[in-house]
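Record type: monomer structure entry
Structure origin: computed from sequence
Chain ID: A
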Amino acid sequence: MKKNNLIQNAHTVILSAHRVILSAAKNLFLTVFAIGLFASCQKELATEVTGGKLKNEAQLDAAPALTLRSPKSADGVVNVLITQGAGFVSERIFVTANRPSDLVQTIILQADTTLAEAYRKKTGIDFKVLPEAFYKFDGGSIIELDKDATTSSSELLKIYATNTMGAKLEAGRYLLPIVANSSARRIPTTLYYDVLIREPFEGDAELYEGEDAFFIFYINTEYYDPRLVTDYYMKKMTRSREEIWYNTIGNIINLKTITLIPDEQSGRVILNLGTDMRYVLDHASKYILPLQEQGRKVCISIDGSNKGVGFCNLTDSQIDDLARQVSATISYYHLDGVNLWDKNIGYGKNGFPPFNTTSYPKFIKTLRTYLGDSLLLTVTDYEKPTEYFWDADATEGIEVGRYIDYAWSGYNIREEGYQIIDPYHQGEAMISAKHPRMPILGLDSSRYICINAPWEGNTDVSIINQTTKDILAWKEAGYKNNNICLFEDLRTVLQDQLEGKWDLSTFTRLLADDRESCRYVFDMSHLSIIDGEISYNKWLKDW
């Protein structure tokens, strides 16, 4: 198909003819052949061929090879899922070069629906062409590849189920081929957007609680209404796109942020809910109960306030007092548990006791006593506060893993891509050497989540490719011991630097055991529509 595309492109025909003519000077036989070829093409080339083109041709031959890309696809096919009557999705498009150029290149994107028929024949799928009224380039369809760069800027392609005029697309399967031109030639790759508009049906709002995946999310109440998660939908389907299940996701929701602050007069360490969290908890029937009614477990997440006091320098009396406060808060607001993430403490500040290795294990053990067995207690494994949890001598014999339900990596740095933090297989090539960890004593490996996935905040193809290879190698080695998926803080559809870059599908596909027979697609279109009207920032806090 790519070959046919090249032949159809006038610029490529021109350059091909030029190359033959240049070769003719070296070989008489090729000269005769070139003249015949030129004669056959002279009608098409009559207005293009001039004596001054040869220098430009040499420049183009020396230019880097360009590839049109989507971060969601390695094979040029981008799967898009939207529920009929919902909003839109933003799909990011960029270009990579095999080597830097000494010139800035302008790249123009456009839809080419003439390619649809050939693609139908190739796949055997009866696609409809996506109507022009249901897609648009958000920034004018132009992207630039800077001088000395190998990755271009990005453009957002918006695909609508309900467009800005209120028109709704019928359920069905649509195709949108996107091509690009740079300078005087076409980029020899095409992105095919395979758009499935699915009919809504009874049960769509049900939480997925099957065995394929278990989702853990954080939501920051400083920015968002926790009901944001109710619009996170995912679909599992066969390779032919027959639906297996379609549900909302998010089994454990950790609400941020609660901090620890010292009270100088009493010497206590106080649980500080803060304005936003306090408002959400005080209005739990509006913001939390809808999540719990769908089957989610809603927990509070606690970290530090950079005032010098944290889980690792508490006295015995402070340990007991703080554990009572946490337990009382969970009980009073009818929550389901707590996540502990010892960060942003500033140990050594303000005259507080130094860091020690016994305070945190004691606190966890004491807190479990107050919570009982029915409430969740989870720990984020991150840097110094938890790095000694493998050592019984350091923890005075307390096996922390016996008292917690889950532990997970706290490393989700966008610039690093997906880092596999697997304490049980440290030293293997695919395991992160940047953030080495040891197993938590008493915790089974099936209850440790090794990947805390960041939203993709860059287009560094080498990082994306390497982390993908690492995860696949990790799976194939038999090291993946659970189907738990953990992500950076949830977002809505925001018109900022991450729009079109964040998606759950890639990560979930990589974790899927049956990746060859099925696929997972995230449907973000619910996040952009309110009462039938398309809107940004749907779930920004309203208090």
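Annotation 1: Residues 66-198 form a domain with the Immunoglobulin-like fold (CATH 2.60.40.1740).
Annotation 2: The radius of gyration is 28 Å.
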